[in-house]
Write a structure and sequence with these properties.
The protein is mainly alpha-helical. It has one domain: Beta-Lactamase (2-Layer Sandwich). Helix content is about 50%, strand content about 10%. The chain has a two-stranded antiparallel sheet with strand order 1-2. The N and C termini lie far apart (about 35 Å). About 10% of the residues are buried.
């Protein structure tokens, strides 16, 4: 699958999620967001790509999101 087809498929999947949905890289930059997420910031998805939470909201809120992201990336013990 070409890179463009993969991006289009990824966006189609995100756009069909009725809730806020996004993908970030390891540096916290948005790779993709759905329209529901963009609407939260009165924006379009393509305007958010490449930005971080620090670009979109208050420092306090961005730090909270950053802490949550770091927690999600921590290895966890399998439960099965």
């Amino acid at each position: 699958m070409s890179k463009q087809k993969w991006k289009d498929l990824r966006q189609a999947i995100l756009d069909n999620i009725p809730y806020l949905a996004w993908l970030k890289n390891d540096e916290g930059k948005y790779l993709a967001v759905n329209q529901a997420f963009a609407d939260l910031y009165n924006s379009q998805p393509e305007q958010i790509i490449g930005k971080t939470d620090f670009d979109l909201c208050s420092r306090e809120r961005a730090l909270e999101f950053h802490r949550n992201d770091e927690e999600v990336k921590e290895p966890r013990e399998d439960i099965l």
